[in-house]
Amino acid sequence: MKEIDPVTLFRLSVLGPLVSRERLARGELQQIIRELAQRDYAIPGSRRRWVGEKTIEAWYYAWRRDGIEGLTPKPRHDRGVSKLPADAQAAVVAAKCENPRRSIRQIQQLLESAGVVARGTLSRSAIHRLLQQQGLSRMTGSSSVPEEHRRFVAEFANGLWYGDVMHGPTLTVKGRRCKLYLVSLMDDASRLIAHSAFCTGETALDIEGVLKQAVLKRGLPRKLVVDNGAAYRAATLQGICARLDIRLIYCRPYAPEGKGKLERWHRTFRDHFLSELEVSRLTDLDDLNARLWAWIEQVYHRRPHGGLDGQTPLQRYQQDLPRIRLLGQKAAGLDHLFHHRVRRKVRKDGTVSYQGQDFEVPYELSGKTVHLVVDPHAATVIGVENEDGQSLGAATPLDAVANAHRRRRQPDSGDATGLTASENPKTPNPVELAYRHYHGQPQREDE
Predict the structure, then answer these.
(1) Pick from 161, 163, 266, 262: which is nearest to 208 by CA?
(2) Cα–Cα separations (whole angstroms), residue 158 to 217, 234, 246
(3) Which domains does the chain have, with CATH numbers?
(4) What are phi and psi for residue 7, nearest 5 degrees?
(5) What is the CB neighbour count within 10 angstroms for residue 414?
């Protein structure tokens, strides 16, 4: 399976509020693009933190035309090289350094008015590339218009899920005290908890594990709204969602109201589950999660919810069962979708390493760059793939002792005559002659 470029995943995440909409009203496209352009982003491989409206619009139409392939960046042959004359470059940099708040348009007008460049010959994109190359691009300020908030609910179950992490109790796990974290996924329309589990961390791996169980039990959501944290920004999580056709949408930083329903469930969870939990009676993490799942399925899902007109979350979810998007053919390869791909270069002895352990791969791959297919939960290497995601075989733990007795392939010892070494007489080397002389062996006539 071919690895998805991090830039492609980033562009898809920026377009989340657009591509997740089934239809757009007249004028709504430009309005949403303007809002997206006002946000701050962690752009892969760049110190910039903003994306222009024209760029977002181009990404949107590229996605409409070619899907995720349309978001894959195309390398420029002139990348990093400004085509502006040297004097114009110096003037642009000087104008920006003199007043860092000057916009590209202001710099363009200033240089044209001063006669440094002829009117209409200095494009804004050329100024932008030069400033970006020099590290002088400036982040745009946020809008002063207050953000509008409206209460809403998804029309159907699995139309929208929320994901979040809540700090949990402290428990002894494998002989040491650990802080636990509750990772949960909630359906917006039914308030049903697709899956929830206590984990020893709040990493992308923990979130991926909960997501995998959720889609197995409840089917595929169309959108998934999560925090803007590093764990949710992981390329592995973004790649999984892209392959499952789940639109990953990020909340704006410091805006928890975007997941208000899940925040409200956290409060209910603390009041009704954690307050009654006797931590001293728990034996391990599995015991705690077993109690959690029993409470969710037997209590929370079967209790009438105030926001569902008296229905229980389970009843509301089952009401839309015919509309639920099932895994279908993806179910058989679900484990493969959740495997991680780790880039490695094969050593000359046909081995690679992962987390301090050496593995053997097909010897023909020596010197080549491959992707190790890893089960991150079991920390095991499953197989090897090339850059295009094609399987190249298995990876097995290195057994150096067994290799000492393994028969190796030898190069062909014949020569141009087609005779083997035993059939093709040749002149012995000086060491062989000395050996024969020492032991009194006569010299052959052909020597």
Answers:
(1) 163
(2) 12, 23, 11
(3) 6-71 (no CATH), 86-133 (1.10.10), 161-329 (3.30.420.10), 339-403 (no CATH)
(4) -65, -40
(5) 12
Q: Categorize the per-residue pLDDT at 90 as very low, low, confident or very high, splitting at 50, 70 and 90.
A: confident
**First-residue to last-residue Cα distance in the chain:** 61
* Residue indicated by tokens 């007249």: 26
Residue 169: in which H helix or E strand, if any? strand 161-173
Provide the whole-model pTM: 0.61
Among the residues of 53-85, which ranges form H helices?
53-66
Coil vs helix vs strand at 111? helix
**Distance separating alpha carbons of residues 149 and 53, to the nearest angstrom:** 23
Residue 287 and residue 223: Cα distance in Å, rounded? 32
Write out pLDDT tens, residues 93-128.
888 888 887 888 888 888 888 888 888 888 888 888
Torsion of CA 339, 187, 33, 39, to 10 degrees: -80
In the block, tokens 């007008």 appear at: 109
Name the residue with tokens 């946020």.
142
User: 380-385 and 176-187: which strand pairing?
Assistant: unpaired
